[in-house]
Amino acid sequence: MTGEIKVADWTAVAARIRAHSPFLARQMDRFPAVTDLLALGDYDAALAAAHAIPAPDDGIARSLRLRKGALSLVTAAADLSGAWGLDRVSQTLSDFADQALEEALMAAFAERYPGEEPKGFVVLALGKHGSRELNYSSDIDPILLYDPTTLPHGEREDPADAAVRIGRRVSELLNARDGDGYVFRVDLRLRPTPEATPIALPVEAAIGYYESMALGWEQAAFIRARPAAGDLALGDYFMQQIRPFVWRRSLDFGAIDAITDISRRIRDHYAQGQAFGPGYDLKRGRGGIREVEFFAQVHQLIRGGRDPALRSGNTRHALKALAVAGVFDDEVARRLDEAYVLFRTIEHRLQMVEDRQTHELPKTAEAMDNVARLHGLEDGAALLDLLRPHVVWVGANYDQLTPAEKEESLFHDEERLAGQLAEMGFTDTDAPVARIARWRTGTVRALRSTASREALEELLPGLMRTLAAAPDPVRALNRLDDLIGRLPSAINFFKLLAARPGLAELMAELLSHAPTLADALGRRAELLDGLIDTSAFDPPPPVEQLAEQFAQLEKGEDYQALLDRVRQRVNDRRFALGAQIIRGGDPLEAGRGYSRVAEAAIEALASATVKEFEAAHGKVPGGEMVILALGRLGGGVLTHASDLDLVYLFTGGFLTESDGARPLGATQYFNRLGQRITNALSVQTAAGPLYEVDTRLRPSGAQGLLAVSLDSFAKYQREEAWPWEHLALTRARPLFGSAKARAALGAILAETLERPRDFEALARDAVKMRGDIARHKPPAGELDVKLAPGGLVDLEFLVHVTQFQHNMAFDPDLRVALEQLVAAGHLPGDLVAAHDLFTRFLIVWRLVSPKSTEPPLATQPVVARACGVESWDALLESYAQARQRVGEAWAALAAPYVEEDDAGSR
């Protein structure tokens, strides 16, 4: 038998109530009309009747107590009969708590300030009330907040005194007990420092507390908080302001430690309720309700800052969302949910007996049998048999969150430290000994606090062992030292690594091989957060889905917040792609991923910028912004460090004027808009940098207008463009604008590229251009895959000139164009492999050797593996052969068109 019993006959349910629940039996006698409706099986009508009990003459408190009694009877009967499940029962009780708070608050205002609107005062529900999961007999744990500027108060009364008096009166109305019982026990101790603060707090002071001083357990408590009564707009404002405290993008393992520490303290404090059997505490016991809730909350805190879908305060909803997101298996979620429903159902049975807020199974056999039979079981032994497997499984599952025993270490024995490090694998122990000593002195800013040094000591043995096993231990250690030196505080960083040992290994790899990623980690150590599950190593989704993710904002956030959000999300993705490459992913796939990320950033930021601009200047009738990508972005394959080559165009006529409050002519409008979009993509904000944007490939170059009309663009390409500009258009691709506008631009590109032309003149210009590049921008060395003779630039010129020679294969993806030319017999087939080798080489090179110098010995195998060969020597051989093939093909094509001045630059 599970917690959700089958619908039972009312006669049998009533008999169980009479035999096993004195409290409910009294309610049946007190509310005969409600009982009659229950006997008919009409639970909705019985609920309506409970809410409609006439208000007595002696005030709101007694009215609420009577309605609460009748409501208790209805919810218990519907629960015991199986007509309502746990969710319906808990939500009905929670909704009544909202209603009771609202009516008590209205009464308090009416008593003190007749005729005044009850504004400037809000009741926040926390705990099970906040998540609409109230127990059958439960406290409510509200926090009372007020706005001193809008709260009604007497002429000589301080708003703080007025708020306290209102709060005290609300509490009195709900807490008062007489022969009719009580409404709710009100516990106000969850407010900040309850021993020193008044029961009602000014909203701005509360915001300041949660932003700067709150404890980890308070962060977890607010997962289930919501405005429940009073000035709900004020409550929404407060919740919006503290959202960054609750849902942090970077992992806060201090808060997670606080939750697990609470759990350990509960297990210790309620030791007598830990052993399963009579007296077991269903709420606080090992494997009980709290451990289901805490298990969900820990995972919510880890991931909810980045995924709003995981933020539900409701335990069952949270478990389902976490499973859908792949945080843990569906089977784990199912078993936790099944256990939670059963535990909460039996908890309700315990409380139904005499309306006591108890969570402990009875200690006597007689009382245990009574609860079991109220639930419909034979005896207490059957109840224990029902609960036992769930309690055991939940406890074992929750133990996974408890840190393993700390490693015994002699790291504090300075005399033995060097020897320990040598045993770990450090061949040179002087550097790590010196680094550890410096960290321990507290001279590094991030390690000045005792808490941060304690976090370091907990991590240190495992961290040094990981660094010792790194491909280049000293380089990794030095970069880690640089990273720590840039952090404002190292606590979260160390706790993250301690909680996820696999991340330390990955970090050591990144620090050993990828200075670009090491620098990014130094700016934002929380970039490691994105690698806590394997989904970070999946390719980025399609551009449309990415753009939607990038553009997501929380309630109340504006355009400036979007600039930060996009930077965070883009850089998370770029960092993950770099980690994929270092971990053995295909650089070509990563390059396409980099491109999709950039396109999505353009879509998200350009759309938002257009909207902002239209709010001030209106729209240009018949006109819209269109963005054309060229270069590597146009070709759809970027590196980690690529800039964005963009051209801004617009549809419609340039004589039109916008229709907003501050109208602008079309040309001025779209030129200003283009500059705004460039700024949105390139300006560094508090969240860091995004992309460098290069607009010099626009018509007339840097001297021309930033944005021109499509008609002007088409005319320029027909009449004025230089041959090199047509070469650049072979990599052009419309990225932003309506489908119609993109199609119109695509038609202009096709017409420009495919029109008849003097090929020999174009080829001479192309050969001269390549010579100019060789003279003015020489390669940094033989390994400069882009600029070295026979390298990627030569291959690009070879493909583009061949495209015009045969007037075909004008695909912006260089590899696709090359394959089409090879298939047509215009270029040798081995150039495709050369293209792939060069492109992989360039993408991984930008990560491991940004200055195009030979990488460290330990990194050379990483580069070779990324390029698909077995060793560094084999890579150098393949690279040389590919350069020779490309150089020979380019020289053969260029030979007839080389002018005397360019002969030496081939």
Task: Describe the overall structure.
59% of the residues lie in helices and 5% in strands. The strands form three sheets. Strands 7, 8, 9, 10 and 11 form a five-stranded mixed beta sheet that branches. It has a four-stranded mixed beta sheet with strand order 5-3-1-6. The protein folds into six domains: 84 residues, no CATH class; 129 residues, Beta Polymerase, domain 2 (2-Layer Sandwich); 148 residues, Up-down Bundle (Four Helix Bundle (Hemerythrin (Met), subunit A)); 100 residues, Four Helix Bundle (Hemerythrin (Met), subunit A) (Up-down Bundle), CATH 1.20.120; 212 residues, 2-Layer Sandwich (Beta Polymerase, domain 2), CATH 3.30.460; 137 residues, Up-down Bundle (Four Helix Bundle (Hemerythrin (Met), subunit A)), CATH 1.20.120. Helix 2 crosses helix 5 and helix 27 crosses helix 36. Strand 8, helix 29 and strand 9 form a beta-alpha-beta unit. It is elongated, with a radius of gyration of 35 Å. The termini are far apart. With 906 residues, it is mostly helical.
Question: What is the secondary structure topology, with strand pairs?
Answer:
Blueprint (H helix, E strand, L loop, with lengths): L9 H11 L1 H9 L1 H8 L3 H9 L8 H22 L4 H27 L8 E5 L1 H4 L8 E2 L2 E4 L12 H17 L9 E2 L13 E3 H10 L3 H6 L4 E5 L1 H15 L6 H17 L19 H15 L11 H10 L5 H23 L12 H11 L4 H19 L15 H11 L5 H12 L8 H19 L4 H14 L4 H9 L1 H13 L1 H9 L19 H9 L7 H24 L4 H31 L7 E6 H5 L8 E7 L15 H17 L10 E2 L12 E3 H10 L3 H7 L3 E4 L2 H16 L4 H18 L15 H15 L7 H10 L6 H19 L11 H7 L5 H23 L12
Parallel strand pairs: 2-4, 3-5, 8-9, 8-10
Antiparallel strand pairs: 1-3, 1-6, 7-8, 7-11
Pfam families: GlnD_UR_UTase, GlnE
Protein name: Glutamate-ammonia ligase adenylyltransferase
Keywords: ATP-binding, Ligase, Magnesium, Multifunctional enzyme, Nucleotide-binding, Nucleotidyltransferase, Transferase
